[in-house]
Specification:
homodimer; alpha/beta; 6-stranded mixed sheet; 4-stranded antiparallel sheet; 32% helix; binds adenosine-5'-triphosphate; binds magnesium ion
Chain lengths: 227, 227
Amino acid sequence: IISVFNVYKKYRLGDIEVPVLRGIDLEVRPGEFLAIMGPSGSGKSTLMNMIGCLDRPTEGKVLFRGIDINSLSDGELAKLRGLEIGFVFQTFNLIPRLSALENVKLPSYANSIPGIDPDEHARNLLKTVGLEDRMRHKPNELSGGQSQRVAIARALMNDPALILADEPTGNLDSKTSLEIMELFSELNRQGRTIIMITHDPEVAEYAERVVYVKDGLIQKDYGDQAD
Amino acid sequence: IISVFNVYKKYRLGDIEVPVLRGIDLEVRPGEFLAIMGPSGSGKSTLMNMIGCLDRPTEGKVLFRGIDINSLSDGELAKLRGLEIGFVFQTFNLIPRLSALENVKLPSYANSIPGIDPDEHARNLLKTVGLEDRMRHKPNELSGGQSQRVAIARALMNDPALILADEPTGNLDSKTSLEIMELFSELNRQGRTIIMITHDPEVAEYAERVVYVKDGLIQKDYGDQAD
Ligand SMILES: Nc1ncnc2c1ncn2[C@@H]1O[C@H](COP(=O)(O)OP(=O)(O)OP(=O)(O)O)[C@@H](O)[C@H]1O
Ligand SMILES: Nc1ncnc2c1ncn2[C@@H]1O[C@H](COP(=O)(O)OP(=O)(O)OP(=O)(O)O)[C@@H](O)[C@H]1O
Ligand SMILES: [Mg+2]
Ligand SMILES: [Mg+2]
């Protein structure tokens, strides 16, 4: 579903060039459950932005279902993301003036799914992540872990084929983390592809394949069905 | 150094009252290393805001070195915090348009310590947390774990007697987490009081005492020297 070919990402900071991704090759099959691990600053979130079509590589190619994302306009990329990809951001990126419920419903305004009532669906998702009695709270009226769960529910709103989760349990206690991982396992069993960045080895256990990133390169790849 | 007597915190959301802290009693001795654990949404960050004099209880008392914080004006409270308390926030709270270095130096502008060059001290702190080559980056040019480490360095800028850290390793890989915990242990050995919220049992191991919070109350207290 995702192919990353020799991808480089370099940032420019004034007159200095900051190389972040230095030639990443990665193939992810439909229905795979992949964990990405590695040191802080090694390039995991940057790689996920490439995979999630939120950013373009400096060099190399990213294919989504065989389509080169560089051949798509920004508008076409946004449409693709809205329909196909659910993103849980490392820093949540919730809208401060909207309630938890309104934050979760947001993806349905651009791309609504026929036959699903967005309000009912959003409420169900919030119940599933344990936030039934926090739906009216705004992000500054929620705990860190509650905000994280709103971000997770929002990512699932449009029933995406590909779920990208960047440190989805970083602010959750063990019990709640495992509940979220059971949810992801169930979504994966139903056929969705899940790519998850995590620092927690117990969370990575839920994945069938683990890729280690270090200094902008893939160091190890365990459990790749292609091997 | 900190005494919390029968503290309640209730929020008002429209016409509904949200009880968060329901009668917390806690005494923390100078030089103690205390970990606070508990489920997401149980009230840990809210309790830390009370202890850190960033918020006032709805009922009950908080004493800082025997002074009732409710007897101090907002200005006096701010001065006390600036001199005595270093706070690592769960969501970092970095200033977006300032570089990592400038973010770390920020506490020294309100309260500078005689004999210390803020620029040199800030650079040393950033080196200590492994960000020597990220000093000029702004928060949106840093990874999640790098931003977290800038927040940690900033908390240490004024050499505070009390360090409050809310999930300080949530975005860090195991190796970097342990480096931060070694740093905290060293600061504690030098006499500073450390109160740390964490979801990670391995991180809690570095503390000498662990308090469990659930539904706004303290459920368990292990390792309390007073017992
Ligand atoms: N301004 C507010 N208005 C209403 N409720 C609030 C407000 N701020 C926090 N809360 C509620 O207070 C409860 C405790 O929040 P707190 O941030 O202390 O939890 P926590 O234990 O730190 O959780 P986490 O581990 O997820 O960070 C939560 O249920 C939250 O919804
Ligand atoms: N806009 C930018 N300009 C310059 N450098 C950047 C920019 N964005 C990210 N970086 C750098 O890219 C590197 C990788 O960042 P990334 O967020 O991908 O790391 P990460 O592996 O997700 O780390 P963490 O585990 O801490 O979240 C970091 O060293 C960071 O400083
Ligand atoms: Mg990251
Ligand atoms: Mg919290």
